[in-house]
Task: inverse folding
């Protein structure tokens, strides 16, 4: 099961806020499509899916602050 982890963001940024999930649990996602929108104090960006599959579980809700290395979701 591929785990979606908040990657290194660079420029000393260590956390981001979940702005929007483009899919819900149980939906099929395709590799490379935007999965989640995240916001930092400097920018907003989309995190794409690393693989195709079913979005099994989301571990961070909209509005939640996540840190680099935190588990965001699992795709099965």
Result:
């Amino acid at each position: 099961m591929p785990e979606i982890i908040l990657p290194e963001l660079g420029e000393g940024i260590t956390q981001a806020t979940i702005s929007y999930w483009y899919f819900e649990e149980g939906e099929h996602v395709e590799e490379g499509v935007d999965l989640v929108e995240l916001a930092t104090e400097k920018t907003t960006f989309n995190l794409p899916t690393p693989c195709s599959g079913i979005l099994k579980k989301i571990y961070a809700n909209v509005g939640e602050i996540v840190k680099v290395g935190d588990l965001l979701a699992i795709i099965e």
Observations:
- The first strand starts at residue 3 and ends at 5.
- The chain has a mean pLDDT of 95.
- The CA atoms of residues 16 and 43 lie 10 Å apart.
- The radius of gyration is 12 Å.
